[in-house]
Write a structure and sequence with these properties.
By secondary structure, the chain is an alpha/beta fold. Helices cover about 30% and strands about 25% of the residues. The protein has 11 helices and 20 strands. Strand 15, helix 6 and strand 16 form a beta-alpha-beta unit.
């Protein structure tokens, strides 16, 4: 072989090989993605694994539990109608109750609580006396009340105020903290109330504050080590899944010592996930699922009491979380995308505020990576196309929509076939609304194979899964099933695969 003649050929071959290696490198992305969400791992969602809360004393009275209280003597609801500096009364007819008769608990420990009203104020003692009023949280520290429950009848309760005395309903217009006598637990005892639990919350705040500082750290670290392991990544890679969507909470950026009651350790678990993903040829979507003060009020947002309070004033802090995540993982070959916020909720979270945050978050990711996709979640209750024009001005962005045949009364009436038809007709249309030729990519970031159809057979579930895989497979970025693991079988992608309900 003539050496001088072969040099151009060898050089051309070398360039081709470099190009091939770059395209086949771990940084390359094969779209669309097929992923599960690793829900209830680094952000707790108690409905997915209720036994996580069984070891908490008074686990029906966690942060955010909404209760209504009826005086057993007067047969009237306690109420703080009209809000600020309103005297607490017991004059509301017991045949109905509204938000003014509903109190949200802030748990101090297993027996002491603050009581928050629908206007976000707390119940306290007026001028440190014995008259109960609604007071602003910004004016004085919330009043702690100790809850005593009757043995065998935990719904029958008494409340001890910080002055050492129990609350009593003296009359419809007088609820005071000055009862000194022993309780008989009888109906005519003015210090006895019947407590109705209206709703509960089971998220990260509830579980860490519920177990308390002495137990929460070990409990959560044991959970992170066992709930998702390397074996799970091996299983996923062997069963047609090429990515994972990992929800994280804002507190991960403060690891190893996040603000209380959150505990450190989730960052190490996320590092492990990246290592396992690289080993098994998978990509990682880091999803900022829980924001401080909450973007939607749900337990999965890390909310303490169900209020949605995220706004413009929280943009800077939230961008700092994105900065932390992007700077840490931008160069990792398994990172494919960062999702800036999960499920912001309309109308309280304004679209203009969301766009301002999304632009700042996008710019922050781009400081560290030109290749990582940035995922923008549509608002719950917003228009499907509300982010399209905004996102079209950005590069490598994705619009995330969540499709469930649940959470809407009309689904309760649908038959098996009607549910399947809905996927092919309505969901196809919804997906087309966020899928454009030259605009952002589309992503069905959450879906599952559960519905309200009664008496469905295994074959019915298989057909439902096939319909969704067909339609959601048209999303240009891909899809993520909610979730990988769950104690409810049809919500668990692993169970669905192992039991031949879903074939990928």
């Amino acid at each position: 072989m003539n050496f001088y003649f072969s040099m151009p050929i060898l050089f051309s071959f070398y360039l081709s090989w470099v190009l091939f290696c770059s395209l086949a490198s771990p940084n390359s992305v094969n779209l669309p993605l097929k992923a599960p969400s690793l829900g209830n791992w680094l952000v707790t969602e108690g409905w997915m694994e209720p036994n996580m809360f069984y070891g908490i004393k008074n686990n029906d009275l966690l942060d955010g539990t909404q209760v209504q209280l009826i005086s057993t003597k007067l047969k009237k609801y306690l109420t703080a109608e009209n809000g600020s500096e309103t005297i607490l009364m017991a004059n509301h007819n017991s045949s109905s109750a509204s938000s003014w008769q509903t109190f949200r608990l802030w748990r101090i420990n297993e027996t002491f609580y603050n009581f928050r009203l629908s206007n976000k104020q707390f119940i306290g003692l007026e001028n440190q006396g014995n008259k109960l009023v609604a007071v602003s949280a910004t004016e004085k520290f919330p009043e702690p009340f100790q809850i005593t429950r009757k043995n065998g009848e935990p719904h029958r309760v008494r409340f001890r105020a910080s002055n050492g005395y129990f609350l009593q309903a003296k009359s419809e217009m007088q609820v005071t903290a000055d009862y000194k006598g022993p309780s008989t637990w009888e109906e005519n005892d003015p210090s006895v109330f019947n407590m109705t639990i209206v709703s509960t919350m089971h998220g990260e705040y509830q579980i860490t504050n519920g177990y308390g500082p002495d137990k929460a750290a070990k409990f959560m670290r044991d959970h992170w080590k066992s709930y998702i392991t390397e074996e799970d990544f091996k299983f996923m890679s062997q069963n047609g899944l090429n990515a994972v969507r990992i929800p994280v909470g804002w507190w991960i950026a403060y690891d190893p010592k996040p603000p209380k009651p959150f505990v450190g350790g989730s960052l190490q678990a996320l590092d492990n996930a990246f290592r396992w993903a690289q080993k098994y040829g998978m990509k990682v979507i880091v999803d900022l699922h829980a924001l401080r003060v909450s973007q939607n009020g749900s337990p999965h947002s890390g909310s303490r009491d169900g209020f949605q309070e995220w706004s413009d004033s929280d943009i800077q802090e939230t961008v700092a979380i994105i900065d932390f995540l992007a700077s840490r993982y931008a160069d990792h070959p398994s990172l494919v995308a960062i999702e800036l916020m999960n499920e912001p909720k309309a109308p309280d979270l304004k679209l203009d505020s969301l766009k301002r945050y999304y632009k700042a978050g996008y710019d922050t990711v781009r400081k560290y990576s030109s290749s990582a996709y940035v995922i923008l979640s549509n608002r719950l209750g917003g228009e499907w196309s509300e982010l399209l024009s905004f996102a079209s001005n950005l590069s490598r962005v994705v619009i995330d929509v969540h499709f469930y045949n649940l959470f809407w009364d009309n689904f309760n009436k649908m038959s098996v076939q009607q549910n399947i038809d809905y996927i092919y007709r309505q969901r196809s249309s919804d997906l087309r609304n966020v899928t454009t030729p030259d605009g952002p990519l589309s992503f069905v970031g959450e879906w599952c194979c559960e519905w309200e159809a009664e008496g469905a057979s295994k074959r019915d579930y298989q057909r439902f899964a096939e319909a969704q895989l067909d339609v959601y497979g048209r999303a240009t970025f891909g899809w993520a099933y909610w979730a990988y693991k769950c104690h409810l079988n049809h919500w668990s992608l692993r169970w669905m695969i192992e039991n031949n309900y879903i074939k990928l």
